[in-house]
Structures
1.
Amino acid sequence: MNLDFLLTPDEPWIMSFGGDFEDIVENIRLLQAQNPGLKMVVLEGKSMRTKDELFDELTEKLKFPDYFGRNFDALDDCITDLAWLEFDSIVLVIKDSKDVLNKAHISRISKLLRRGKVPAEVLATDNLSIFLDSLCSAGIEWSQPVESGNWWDRLPVPFHTILVQKEISIIKYHGTRQEIPVIGA
């Protein structure tokens, strides 16, 4: 599987992989062997079923600073900084992505579906859409060079997220209403 696009700051910034988690991780490790500046961060979807669990997992795995405010605005701030991590490019791999922010809202969505108030094809809760927006916005932010004449100037940095689940269902990306591309299919 060719994953060289993970080394470019270009779209897509979020993609789905339907298959074995170990397959995608092994392919990224092979890419890392030739590109040591590529940092892979594995996030466990089953550890991110509520908003608090999501922020716990992100804080632990991305080593967010103590001032992280545990809300989506603070997530946007921290995920577009990451100065405390060393990398030339970064890929977040979310294992069991279907479980992200699932526990907190599944009963509410189920009730609405039974009442016919939410179409069956709705796959994301509001918080999940906000989270996906944050990841996509981070990809966009990192893809732009910073040229202000200061010490924090930088070239564009590849920032990608791979949503891994055994079976791919069509996921609409909230911000653009576009489907999230599938890799390895």
2.
Amino acid sequence: DTVGGDTNGDGAVSAPAAGDWYGINVGGGASKLGLNEVTMRYGSSLSAFEVGSVVVTSSRFVQGVLVDLGRNTGNLPLTFTGNTLSAVGAADSGLSVRAYDSTAGVINAAPVVRDNVVSGAVRWGTPDTRGGRAISLYGPNLDPAKFSGNTGSGNTQNALFLSGTLIGSATLPAAGLPWVIGDYYVQSLTVAKGVTLTLNAGAVLKAAPGSSLSVQGSLVAAGTAAAPVTFT
């Protein structure tokens, strides 16, 4: 009632709750999803797949809204930057972004997932052991410069889960959420030819169950006796 008035006309009898409506689903060949300075509340999800262009910036997803974005074909933007997801609730991941290459001869541009804040993503309950991830990101062309600055709190698994192929060099520890290898769909992370993944003294790189790190470029772990590098 505090936004747009008491449209159901019951005064203070009812109150909104997470999951009151199903949310927004964009797909089926839609040409564009563009959101800027939007607030979405109490829906189950914002989802977009098989959309020509996805650009979501400076928006807020509150009380039960998880975000699931994907791109299967084409080379148009897949961008999610400067957004806040809060009180997400039960979810595999508060934010999931997947960019596939399935069109012959077309290499999808790296997704841009930067400077987002995710909080309150939790597991579905027993026996779920994998849910409650802050962010999951998959793509055959992942540029670390384009998924930096993401943070979170109050998530069951407060981390950035990565799978696919790194096409740009990176140094760990990185600012923001810690990296974990693997997600629900692809369990490996590949360091491409010509790319270097550097782990400085004291860095920790964790891996989800069943996942792996494949190096076609360079892996440099510069630990010390006092601050070893740990893969676990």
3.
Amino acid sequence: MGSGRNGLTATKCEKHKVRGRLFDGGGFILNVTHSGIKHWIYRWTVNKRVREMGLGSYPAISLATARERAEECRRTVVEGRGPKAERDREIGKSFGPVQGSRPSIRQLPDSDEEAGSEIKH
């Protein structure tokens, strides 16, 4: 494909069945797996390292919506922030800490008495 943006169309996305990647330009990609599953990817480079982030699966996420998400990621990269970190930060705000997660070593009691349990052998 050319070097410009918006090389994909909804028809191309729908009809493409072969494993591989379809490039829309600007790091926005439709990835098709060997089993025919399609998902959107945004790809960028930081410090000479290529990074990728999933934007959702096709057709649940339309071409237009995926382009909007890719554009948000592009702006984030230009501002010097990481799109994955931004997304994870937003998810953390929405859901809060994970319930039932394991405590860190600092959160563990120092002794069995503090834990309130008896050791039985």
4.
Amino acid sequence: MNHNALSVQVQEPIQYVGLPPKLRSSLTETKDYFQAMDNFFRVFAIRPGERVLMLTDPLLDPRVVDAVTGLARARGASLSQYMAPSTTLPRVPEEVKPLVQKADFVVSTWFCSIEDPFNIAMRKSGQRWIKITYFRDLDLLMTPQARFPIDLVGEVRGESPDAAILREMLVGSKIIEGGGCGFNPKALRDPEVVALASRYGDPIDLLESFV
């Protein structure tokens, strides 16, 4: 009895030479990403030779620290970091004050960065600060908030009691998030931004109760 072998041929998909490959969805987001990156570079306006100090907490996305560190290195600046147990220190610890005094540019996640008289005095003396509140996750650079024109959120205007308080507390610094998310203690927050930030321990209730 003869058994003829069954031959199975698999047809290769037709290759069309000269047609471009299908665009990846990420490519359509490139322009938005670079717009956000421009905000990031403008906000973190580190200058050559400066001493940058980051006051952080364990729940900050370490990629945010890496991003600022890389920018500092690219601009010929040095960077050091002091990590506190949380963002809710009532004031700057005494052992940290010498580090702050030596710095030219301070990036902080601590809420006392805003209202501690020591920090206010440092800003009045010319020290530059960035207060991180919602830029706790590097993925926030991919949100619309990161592309918001920073010139529109970089200063306090108005004559309300809240505006006067913020001007006094933040003299010499910017009410700006790294990446373009504005800081306003009473502002309603975009749900997407809140959800991302909450992954890294952002205490929303504390933030909203400042003034």
